[in-house]
Design goal:
The complex is a heterodimer of chains A (about 325) and B (about 180). With about 325 residues, chain A is an alpha/beta fold. Chain A contains 6 helices and 11 strands. With about 180 residues, chain B is an alpha/beta fold. Classes of the chains: A alpha/beta (about 325), B alpha/beta (about 180).
């Protein structure tokens, strides 16, 4: 009988230990799952807060604001395979917004600016983001430099505690600064027939043949991407897709407006020029704008209402 | 085994049983709380998604005539290309977006851009027969038709422009989401 009693006692101890370990593991897993879940939710929330704030001020053709977060963020805006992602840690969300940012976004707030991209009709809003560690220095030693500097929000240039910098030259420069935390952008022939942009890579300007600039808003897009790969990925991917989509929409809309006989010639002209624009002929934008402006003088509805800046519509 | 030992053994089995039941209940509570939390967060995220979509649609270059004003003719053009991958990604695979004209009331109650399940849509017929005669009460801009139950989660007033008559009307942009339960 004594032996049996001992064996039951040992068994009870063993059982208690095993059961205790299982319960402990259960609560440990529970706690760690809750923490992981909380982190994932917060990260997703940060990304959604950014996306929501950008969407809400897209209604304006030119608007700027500070986006606040509930905690410190580290969000990357990354373009890969011609798709744009908002990424924080392991979480990411694809976005259909044309977002340009020179460095990773860190801190509790982000400075944001949106600008309608018209060429010659509105194609989309462009979004420019930077954190409080990034400063933009624009060379305003030329007339064109003064023009673009005057349009550039001061919140991006008057940064006192910046560790990263984007230097912008509106005319070719021979001695740009070189440092790991400085990105340099230079524009070529901004007032000429073939405006383009180059980015500093190592000791050289890249690409050798400047990337063409389609409208004023694209100048700011180049400044905010400050990197050829990112700029090229967005402009050759989503931005190009947006132009193609809008050309299709307007080509289709013209057929519904053709019944207005007074405007037939202008509608037909726009139709022809839309085809040229779809093939990359930048000069077609000017002709589309002129034909659309001519429609405003008739009783026929113009194709689009957008007001386009005269500059860079060669 | 004497009676005392039998009673002790029975006690232990009983304690074991209760312990197993408690652990089992713990698991049930744990997963039900986790599931409920996930569901609530999911709903919240869907709502934020709908807010983002509402604002994005109201500023979409394919639809707008001016800031916050939807061009009614452009809707016909957009619907012709709505199967493009870009728009599927833009609107999402569970959304429905409808524009309803509320004032002044149209003379008909036709949904002029509704697409049947076979995706047959005659733009010219609706445009010439209904749109030109002010019979379009609503315009289905996008319909994923991906679930069995549709729940409207957001509506926004918008201005609707009619280029042929140079008129402005008031409309409501309705965003719905499909659910499978």
């Amino acid at each position: 009988m004594e032996k049996r009693g001992v064996s039951i006692f040992v068994f009870t101890i063993m059982f208690t230990l095993i059961a205790g370990a299982i319960i402990l593991m259960f609560f440990f897993n529970f706690g760690s799952d809750i923490l992981d879940f909380g982190d994932k939710v917060t990260t997703l929330q940060n990304i959604l807060v950014l996306d929501k704030n950008l969407a809400s001020f897209a209604l304006s053709p030119n608007s700027e604001k500070t986006i606040e977060f509930s905690e410190d963020i580290s969000i990357d805006v990354d373009c890969s395979n011609q798709e744009i992602f908002l990424r924080e840690g392991d979480e990411e969300k694809e976005t259909k917004k044309l977002i340009f940012t020179p460095f990773q976004l860190n801190g509790r707030s982000v400075q944001a600016w949106t600008l309608a991209w018209n060429y010659p009709f509105k194609i989309d809003n462009l979004y420019f983001l930077a954190d409080s560690n990034t400063k933009f220095t624009l060379d305003s030693s030329s007339q064109i430099g003064i023009y673009f500097t005057s349009k550039f929000p001061r919140r991006f240039t008057q940064v006192t505690t910046a560790t990263n910098e984007v230097k912008v030259y509106f005319q070719p420069t021979s001695s740009p600064p070189i440092a790991p935390n400085i990105k340099v952008v230079q524009f070529i022939e901004l007032e000429g027939a073939n405006p383009g942009v180059q980015f500093k890579r190592g000791n050289n300007w890249y690409p050798t043949i400047p990337v063409p600039i389609w409208g004023d808003a694209m100048v700011f897009a180049a400044i905010f991407s400050a990197d050829y790969d990112q700029f090229n990925c967005i402009t050759q991917g989503l931005a190009k897709q947006r132009i193609d989509s809008l050309i299709k929409i307007y080509s289709n809309t013209i057929t519904s407006l053709l019944s207005c006989s007074e405007g037939t010639n202008n509608y037909n002209e726009i139709s022809v020029q839309l085809r040229s624009l779809s093939q990359g002929d930048i000069s077609a934008a000017r002709d589309i704008k002129d034909a659309n402006d001519a429609l405003k003088l008739t009783d026929c509805p113009p194709l689009f209402k957008g007001i386009e800046t005269e500059r860079l519509l060669q | 085994m004497n009676k005392k030992a039998q009673v002790q053994f029975m006690e232990m089995i009983f304690v074991l049983l209760i312990l197993v039941v408690i652990i089992f209940m713990g698991f049930i509570f744990y997963y039900s709380f986790l599931y409920k939390g996930l569901e609530e967060k999911g709903e919240r995220f869907t709502e934020i998604d709908a807010i983002i979509l509402t604002d994005s649609v109201a500023s979409m270059a394919e639809l707008t005539h001016d800031t916050g004003v939807i061009n009614s003719i452009k809707i016909f053009s957009l619907v012709e290309h709505i199967d493009d991958d870009y728009y599927k990604d833009f609107f999402g695979d569970d959304k429905k977006v409808i524009l309803e004209v509320v004032y002044p009331k149209p003379e008909g109650d036709v949904d002029c851009t509704s697409i049947d399940p076979n995706r047959h849509f005659d733009t010219n017929y609706h445009f010439n027969t209904n749109y030109r005669n002010n019979k379009c009460k609503s315009f289905t801009i996008y319909d994923a038709k991906s679930g069995i139950r549709e729940q409207e989660i957001r509506q926004n007033p918008v201005s609707v422009y009619y280029p042929l008559t140079d008129e402005y009307k008031i409309g409501i942009l309705r965003i719905g989401v499909y659910k499978n339960e």
